[in-house]
Amino acid sequence: VMASHAERVFLRSGVDVLSRSTNKGLALAIDLVGSKVHVAAPAAVIAAGTLQSTLSSRIASCEAVGQAVGKVYPIAVKSVLHGFTPKQLFIQTLRSVVQHLTPILEEWWHEFEEEEKRADAAGSDIEIPPLPDMKPVLNKSVWTIVRGTTVTTVRKILDHLVVLKLDQRLAWKLTKDLPTSARRKAGRDAPSGLLGPLKQAGRMTRTVTRGHLLTIAGEVIVQQAILAHRALHDLTSKEEERKRNAVKRWYRKTVANLVRGAGSLVCCATACGIVVMFHRKDWPRAANYSTVIALVLGDLGGDLLIGIPIDAWANI
Q1: 263 CB-side CA count, 13 A
Q2: Does residue 257 register a pLDDT over 80?
Q3: pTM of the shown model
Q4: How far apart are CA 295 and CA 212, in angstroms?
């Protein structure tokens, strides 16, 4: 018999209340025997014994029901404002700056190498090319930070909704921390036999699919809100061509957004499964950081294999 989280809390509360009632009943019997109230001592002792017997039987019944409840799933949901903590803001800022600054610096470095080759061939001094304008990069970085923080906030809101509305077991599977779960799985006995690595990889793939689902859902929801804002802007535009193609453009972008999210989830789960399968012996020691690396590679693979083609189709 499976019970909900509220029923389990009620059972535990009932057991505690009944235990306290038993202690109070015994104290009352002692007071009665001590003639604080003029009642016959044998009657008080008999009443206390009857009360203790009744409460003990009820406590045993509640404990039996509690054992029948089964496994308890501890859920630790972080605050909705977790994305605004200094650590998360620093990570978002560093990721955004690296993402937008790297292409600009790479292009400048190629220009520097070309100028160096030209100077060596001519036997003249090297003229260092001017640094590119950083203002557009900073603007893009700010918007990326805002978007990343919004995605994190939406993810935490989804976590709270899942905990409130869904079964405790399912909520635990959707909100669990993936590196912690991987480390816990690594501590168990690995499946033996020829198909053992495939079974272990399949377990990790299912875990990542469930645990990473809300993160992908947060990214899809935020991107869909951006697409809706752009569609409304196109519908209210004075240009007839933009107004005429607004709905078609929004439809294609929506399909691309959903396909990109699904592809990213599949690639992340597959990457974690592959890492488990090929690093099976070292998995107990490397489960934590290997899972994080696999998630990053999965997101990158999803963008390269699915994101670029689907975006090209959406922009036709």
Answers
A1: 18
A2: yes
A3: 0.69
A4: 9
